[in-house]
Amino acid sequence: MEISIGIIGLGSMAKAIVSPLLERGEYHPQNVLGIVGSSSSIAPALNDLPKKVKVVSSEDSLSGEVWKAPVKLLAVKPQQFSKIRESVSSVKSKDQLSKPLLISVLAGITLKSLKKAFPGHTCVRAVPNTPSLVGQGLTGLAWEDDISLDQKEVVRKIFEPISEIFELQEQQLDSFLALTSSGPAYISLVVEAMADGAVAAGLPRHLSNQLAHKTLSGTASLLREKSLHPAELKDMVASPAGTTISALRHLELAGLRSALIEAVVLAAQKSRQLAEEVSS
Ligand SMILES: NC(=O)c1ccc[n+]([C@@H]2O[C@H](COP(=O)([O-])OP(=O)(O)OC[C@H]3O[C@@H](n4cnc5c(N)ncnc54)[C@H](OP(=O)(O)O)[C@@H]3O)[C@@H](O)[C@H]2O)c1
Fold first, then answer.
1. Cα–Cα distance between 64 and 87 in angstroms, integer?
2. Is the residue at 71 inside a domain?
3. What confidence tens digit (pLDDT) does each residue in 10-40 have?
4. Which domain holds residue 127?
5. Each residue of 225-256: pLDDT tens digit?
6. CA of residue 78 to ligand 1 center, whole Å
7. Which residues line ligand 1 (CB under 6 A)?
8. What is the total count of domains within the chain?
């Protein structure tokens, strides 16, 4: 089997990345090899993918073939990293001299750790966020200094279908992740709380949830399409002595703004701390 791209950990994120690449014909299904942890995950991994994609479990003898691929996408959970590290050391081969690409989406695994674990590879860190699952993500990329222009293009082509790409210094990835990867959780909390407020004020639950979602998506579209600064939009909505400014007064007193600022800073610190733990 000739493998163009090998996917170590064909779970939800890897599928979100690979599906559009197959649809666009960037890779042929028969040249894609995906690895999952257990054989019971093969059928769900294959679901929605073209039949010719080959998926095997990490226990299958064919799984070692993945290390021959010129492009590898590492998308297991960070806790599984050490197991993968062990499996690669047992398949050292001359192929590794031709500098294949290893693209990792694992949070907190540094380029230094990747280089140590996958000698002979050009390593790339990619930080996609959950909206990538619906093609509206953001991906931060950091790569080794010696990556070639062609390799950069290969990496960009992999993430472009699902996300807007930001090329960053590796030390910026923790802050990028704290905003963009954790951000959907912060926003979801706010949307949920706003819907709860509407229920408390007397609207039915289903309607409150629906209205909270639509308020979020409409506001995001308005900010984007009119290129508004958030403060401009806030001022547009808050009329003198009106309902919105009363609510905003309360939010300021309750510390919403400072809570969000500190949340992003804490998430960035935690990301750095996790990276130190893994690499120590
Ligand atoms: N989902 C997101 O929105 C998102 C966003 C940004 C970054 N990420 C990153 O993406 C990575 C994957 O996340 P996910 O949500 O896609 O997780 P997931 O759905 O659980 O996928 C992980 C995959 O790895 C497989 N796996 C486990 N052990 C393995 C082994 N030894 N060899 C090969 N494959 C193995 C799992 O198979 P089994 O199920 O059989 O164990 C599963 O298919 C994580 O590191 C996460 O931080 C995810």
1. 8
2. yes
3. 999 999 999 999 999 999 999 999 999 999 9
4. 5-168
5. 999 999 999 999 999 999 999 999 999 999 99
6. 8
7. 8-14, 35-38, 41, 45, 58, 75-78, 80, 83-84, 105-107, 128-130, 181
8. 2
